[in-house]
Amino acid sequence: MKKGKVYLVGAGPGDYKLITFRGLEAIKMCDVIVYDRLSSPRLLKWAKDGCEFIYVGKEAGNHTMNQQDINKLLAEKAKLGKDVVRLKGGDPYVFGRGGEEGEYLFNEGIEFQVIPGITSAIGGLCYGGIPITNRGYNTSFHVITGHLKDESNELDFSNLAKLDGTLVFLMGMKNLEKICKGLIQNHKKIDTPVAVIHWATHSNQQVVTGDLSNIVDEVKKHNITSPSLIVVGDVVRLRRVLNFHERKPLFGKNIIITRPEAQNESITDAILDLGGNPIPIPSIEIKDIWPNAPLMESIENMGEYSYIIFTSVNGVRVFMKGLYDKGYDLRRLGNTKVVAIGPATANALKENGIVPDIVPKKYIAEDIYMELVKVLNSDDKILIPRSRDARPYLVDELRKICKVKEVHLYYTESAKNNREILINTFKEQDIHYITFTSSSTVKGVMDLLGEKNVELLNDVNTVSIGPVTSNTMRKFGLRVDLEAHRYDMAGIIKGIIVKEEVTDGVDK
Ligand code: SAH
Question: Ligand 1, atom 11: nearest CA belongs to which residue?
Fold first, then answer.
């Protein structure tokens, strides 16, 4: 059997977008991904369907799988003809044991490639606001392991102390005190600036600064643990100016997103780019009503309808499924005018080759009605393919003018499997915002939390996409801390940013 290849891929320092183009290519094409704690699980979503994921995470002192077993695993999978990506934090060769994996594969006769990554020793510092070199500050940098194979084997502090370059210690948190003492005893200036960067590049990045004499106390005071980078050198002073990451508008904010996963990509990316931490916990699942005789019948009779109104992305998806299933395409819509409730639905239509004739300014049913009332007469006939759970308002009002056919395409159920995840997330993390993008997501969250856990929402900002969702929240006894001005996800993010700016101002 033809053997597979192994790719030793550097995932970059944390933020998943800091992987290389070549690394992402390997992830997209491989059959197996072997990953660990420092490589972002967000990268896994680019793997092809059916790709096998194997976690071999190492937390300090708690090895899930030892190196020898990892080597064997890579070789075994390749021998089965599978292409394997070994995803490693930072760069595979910077204290990453990539060399050992390569040697093992070479000896087993397995082809491999190494794809370099941005090491945390450089990229992590960068996000901590610290350039590893800076003109006039230093002429070299040195990356040192703070975790010694044999703990009694001291680093050569007399040489390290003489270097004027930036010193970066990886895996050094257990030995921080030893490192500082070693440098001081060997005459490194006691006021040399030191920074400790915890979870660099992430939204929960934490940086503590001081000098060789006090950094140990500072770290204790802030309870900083591994993984952290220890930086010793004058370049640490530049952090005050170059600390771009922590100045992003949503930096450090944990934001729960309750809508179904399929619709989340653009929103999670937007939050990440703004420095925030999106936590997707869908509170509902979308269930298609399929097979769907009423849908098929209306597609057959499409010519009777003068208007078709889409009120959600899911509605567009299921409708198109019906159209194709019958062997039709867009031409079936003929002269029927198309209405979309808002830009997300309009985009979904455009992706399917349909440019809607009408998109109301505010993205709610009331506004569709206001637009349509201007143009409809009693001869019109309207098709509304939508959720079974939608409010009756639109259909009821339009029926006063002309014939309306409502077809149910899908319904929502609360995502019961996420109950524990949701409750534990509130208990374990400091959640700043929870977003509700429809009345169903509100019902879903209330259902998952149950009455006795509703108090978990007390200290969390509750964000609503618009007035209809807000009403549902109030009906359930929830506060509405923020309501988007534009009734879509972009409006929600804008609202959160503005709220953060205002809060910042109060703090200052
Ligand atoms: N190959 C990796 C390093 C592996 S050693 C690289 O090139 O970055 C593991 C050590 O790297 C951790 O103990 C910590 O010191 C450092 N490290 C890696 N990612 C980090 C991050 N996001 N934040 C802080 N330290 C990190």
Answer: 170
- What confidence tier does 508 reach under pLDDT thresholds 50, 70, 90? very low
* Same domain, residue pair 112 and 188: no
Amino acid at 213: S
In the block, tokens 């093992």 appear at 104
Q: Which domain holds residue 477?
A: 254-283+415-504
pLDDT at site 153: 67
For ligand 1, say whether the CB of 89 is within 6 Å of any of its atoms: yes
- Ligand 1: centre distance to CA 229 (Å): 7
**Same structural domain, 173 and 114:** no
User: What is the whole-number distance in angstroms between the Cα of residue 129 and the centre of ligand 1?
Assistant: 16
Residues 12, 103, single domain; the answer is yes
Are 240 and 341 part of one and the same domain? no
Q: What is the mean pLDDT of residues 161-180?
A: 96
Q: How far is the CA of 61 from the centre of ligand 1 (A)?
A: 15
Burial of 187 (C-beta count, 10 Å sphere; 0-12/13-18/19+): exposed
Q: What per-residue confidence (pLDDT) applies to 505? A: 54
Clarify whether 171 is annotated catalytic.
yes
Mean pLDDT of 114-132: 98
What CATH number should be reported for the domain holding residue 56? 3.40.1010.10
Q: Name the strands in the sheet holding 112-115, side by side, starting at the edge strand that comes first in the sequence.
A: 52-55, 32-35, 84-88, 6-10, 112-115
Do 114 and 128 have their domain in common? no
Question: Are 70 and 184 within one domain?
Answer: no
36 given a catalytic annotation:
yes
User: Among this protein's residues, is 191 annotated catalytic?
Assistant: no
Q: What is the pLDDT of residues 461-492, one digit of tens each?
A: 999 999 999 999 999 999 999 999 988 888 99
Q: What is the 3-state secondary structure (H, E, C) of 93-112?
A: CCCCCHHHHHHHHHHCCCCE
What CATH number does the domain containing 479 carry? 3.40.50.10090
pTM score, whole prediction: 0.86
Regarding whether 361 and 272 lie in a shared domain, the answer is no
Residue type (1 letter), 71: N
Cβ–ligand 1 contact at 102 (below 6 Å): no
Domain identity same for 495 and 346:
no
Residue 311: the pLDDT is 94
Cα–Cα distance between 161 and 138 in angstroms, integer?
A: 14
- How far does the centroid of ligand 1 lie from the alpha carbon of residue 158, in Å? 25
Model confidence band, residue 239 (pLDDT cutoffs 50, 70, 90): very high
Relative to the CA of 119, which ligand 1 atom is closest?
A: 7
